[in-house]
Design goal:
Blueprint: H1 4-18, E1 23-28, H2 37-43, E2 48-55, E3 58-64, E4 74-79, E5 85-89, E6 99-105, E7 110-114, E8 121-126, H3 127-135, H4 146-154, H5 160-165, H6 175-184, H7 198-217, E9 258-262, E10 265-269
Antiparallel strand pairs: 1-6, 2-3, 3-4, 4-8, 5-7, 6-7, 9-10
The protein binds a DNA duplex (16 and 16 nucleotides) through loops.
Length: 298
DNA sequence: CTCGATCCCTGGACGC
DNA sequence: TGCGTCCAGGGATCGA
């Protein structure tokens, strides 16, 4: 499931493999995950992929074209959703199921977008439309500084887990790295942002940044089927402290890692290291102790 | 503003 | 083995 480190891994791979290539033609199969398929068909052929960067959980393929020497900002936004994959293929490689988009490149290779669940998103945006879209998102987790982080987190009564996942607050954090950073900072996921002491907020920021950097170094976490452009899996899932470890011993205190739903998301935490908030905030334990799927092969 | 519920979508795990 | 059901999860949307 691509979150910031996984998207960063894919973006770096694409920067190496396809930046500098020109798109010759576009073939769309399924388009229901696109904002405006016609714009993609119209604008992408002939465009040069200047560079590939990550923006939150999005990849931005920065584009240029000959007839636009002024250099208006133009980009293809790609969100990988849960199961999306964007990678170059040789033209003679057989198409797999769920190949929805094919960009033929000027060196004969094909940049293919494959996404079984189609939770991804693809959009061509330029100029002010692009700027407006990007402004919807919050701070970059790896760059956000102490004061801004504190303001964004401590300024809200929402639960901390929910704030970490809110792309308008921080762009790029998903379920795995939210749980991991809260464990590291010893903060209960159901606490409200405004209940965090300044030193707790700072501990969380530090934990989040450290974990994201380490995860990028390990090329992300491969839980289900995440692979980068070379088809290689990430390694960071081996370093998870709580995610997917419910029922197992906490690495700090040996208590059993718990699982609960917070802010509508599957949440893993240590009930001893991460003290529960006073009262009210506690999600009523629900009667439904759902079947936990043994996540992944480790 | 924040919340939960619901939908989107497919494949894989599980129960029978 | 085969079929039905139940999730996984990010994000949009809606109503409370």
């Amino acid at each position: 499931m691509p979150e910031l480190p996984e998207v960063e891994t894919v973006a770096r791979g694409l920067q190496k493999s396809v930046a500098g290539r020109r798109i010759v033609s576009v073939t769309l199969t399924k388009t229901d995950f696109m904002d405006d398929p016609a714009a993609i068909e119209r604008e992408l052929p002939g465009a040069l992929i200047e560079r590939v960067e990550r923006f939150g959980k999005f990849m931005l393929l920065r584009l240029a074209s000959q007839d636009d020497p002024v250099g208006m900002d133009r980009a293809l936004l790609v969100h990988l959703g849960m199961t999306g994959n964007l990678a170059p293929h040789f033209a003679d490689q057989p198409f797999v199921k769920h190949n929805h988009v094919t960009f033929t490149l000027d060196d004969g290779r094909e940049l293919r977008f494959i996404d079984p669940r189609r939770f991804g998103r693809m959009a061509y945006l330029a100029g002010e439309n692009l700027a407006t879209e990007l402004r919807r998102f919050g701070a970059e987790p790896l760059l956000v500084e102490k004061e801004e982080f504190s303001r964004r987190i401590r300024g809200s009564a929402a639960r901390i887990k929910s704030l970490l996942l809110d792309q308008r607050v921080l762009r790029g954090v998903g379920n795995i790295y939210a749980d991991e950073s809260l464990w590291t900072a010893k903060i209960h996921p159901a606490r409200s942002g405004s209940s965090l002491k300044p030193n707790e907020a700072e501990a969380l920021r530090k934990a989040l940044q450290k974990i994201l950097r380490q995860a990028i170094e390990k090329r992300g976490s491969s839980i289900s089927d995440f692979v980068d452009g070379n088809g290689s899996a990430g390694e960071y899932q081996r370093y998870h402290k709580v995610y997917g470890r419910d029922g197992q011993k906490c690495f700090r205190c040996a208590a059993k890692v718990k699982w609960m739903v917070v802010a509508g998301r599957s949440t893993h935490f240590c009930p001893v290291c991460q003290r529960a908030p006073r009262k009210a905030m506690q999600t009523k334990r629900k009667a439904k102790p759902k079947r936990r799927v043994a996540t992944s092969k480790r």
